[in-house]
Give the backbone structure.
Amino acid sequence: MTQNQTVQIAEAKGRPMLHWVGKRPLDHVTAFPAQLVERFDPVGELQTSEVSETSEVSGNLLFHGDNKDVLAWLLAHGYRGKVNLIYIDPPFDSGADYVRQVQLRGVKGTAKLEGEAHSLGEQIQYTDIWANDMYLQFMYERSLLLKELLSDAGSIYLHCDWRQAHHLRSVMDEVFGAENFVNQIVWQRSFAHGDTGQGARHYGRSTDTILFYAKSEEYTWNPPYLPYSEEAIDRDYKYIEEETGRHYRLVPVDGPGGAAKGNPYYEFLGVSGYWRYSKETMQQLYEQGLIVVSSTGGSLSRKKYLDEAPGKAVLDIWDDVTRIAPMSNERLDYPTQKPEGLLERMIVTSSNPGDLVLDCFVGSGTTAAVAQKLGRRWIAADVNKGAVQTTSKRLQTVIREQVEAGADQTSEVSETSEVSPPPAALSFSVYRINDYDLQVQHNEAVNLAVELVGIERTKTDPFFDGTLGRRLVKIVPFNHPLTPLDLQLLQDELKARPDEERDVVVVCLGKETAIDPWLEEYNKRRPVNKMEVIELRTDQKYGKFFVHQPAQAQVQIERVQTSEVWQTSEVLVVEIEDFISPTIVERLEMDTPLFKAQIPDWRAMVDVVLIDTAYDGKVFNIALSDVPERKNDLVSGHYELPAPDGPTTVAVKIIDMLGEEVLETAEV
């Protein structure tokens, strides 16, 4: 195996350059291995489960993980310069405390922090850091990675709003070069944000900004057009040909600039002058009935028919694509969902059938869904598990409809073509990146470690798993931390191989405190077979290896009698006493006690609480839904509901800010 986990990133050389506190270049990034989670392949087109190190993985790809890790993996696996179109709709820096896209509820800071570097834990404490500095670093690093993935014919559309559009344009100028800036598109939504209520002292905000950059002058461009309005037809195509009834307009045939521009001079139909066409071409146009003489006889024009015109050119103000209507079938109740028509315009204009489209902030999956419908390949990613689940369900529905309709059939689209091309692929695979579920066979865990560290497998050795350079490698099972007993077993194996002089690397996930002094004493006494430990979660060289640990909750559920003046009734009392998401805590690079000391209210990690008062173990019927209206509001945690008659099973579903669910049940 080739050791390829460190991916080199080219320096950004564009101008102007924006500076912020803690700005750091990104010259390399660690590529963590991918863990296959599931496949959707209704027609059996995926042939292998192996992840290639040097070439693209077949089919469409959906990733669950931090998009920085996802982009690094793509660069390490053959996608550099292969992506034709990128659309991203990142966090808008709306005052929320995003940390690697983790948004906690109700966390507010009061102090300011000085210095150039801030830990992720500090970002939680001080809300202004993300807005002023870390947000720009976050976007800068991802922009550098995206540029590496983009082909020379590729384009990128960055969707933002008034809060950071000016900063992000400077970042994009630096990364992609100001010379590759194409357009600043203003999307006029149908509905305002509702921010002009009582007391507002600003104009209503009803637009978003889309920054459009190309990788080079060779970028794909399929000019977009809209149908003419009746008003435009009456104004611009006011003439009607009596013989055919066709609408037309008159355009000049004279040659502006005269001889200086190389236009020919001659007489035609009694009019002398410089013309756009040669005399032979002019004669042909006349014979076709396309040349019109003015009523005075002093000028000539040419007919341009409405039915031959491509339409009205799309400008940089998009006011014809509306937000998703509340009752639309397209609506998925995802907070930042964008309409399919918006993505359709960009995908049709800036890519061709079979091209590869990437969205690493995929949210509800609109980009992937539209790409699938338009015959493009796609890669999508999100750190939020709920977003990945939503996207997966949405794409399964789209692909099933395509399969049922027949892969060679086409469906209508609304932009530049009457029908869409056939699907580029009818399958997709879902992978985890650096959020590993290790409740798997030891062999799969070994494969993850082998790919990350760059180990050469030795399948003929019954004890050692491979080599790293000239050193032997032993991978300790990930279901327990490294113990002195593991090292003693390794030492016994080496004693049984008296001729073995190579040193040993031990790869593990966690280690007991006794390991370091044991190793120090052992290596002092050994001229050969010295041991080194790579602990994947803390080793600086190999990055921070995240292990997925399910969230946990403490919930009390009981049936309580209440007495009113006229009757006695029973209610269900649900009390959520505690909740912890190890994934969120680990991504903030904090341990649980420190996190709880700084964020004492568990509700900061919780997005939604749902309760079913008569759970049958199969279908969750929502009797109560606690969804805070604003980002800084918290769930209640205490609930009282009418109790059903007789014994019942109460189920409480808690969903954290990364979309992970915890289900607690009790019979009462």
About this structure: The longest strand covers residues 568-580. The radius of gyration is 32 Å.
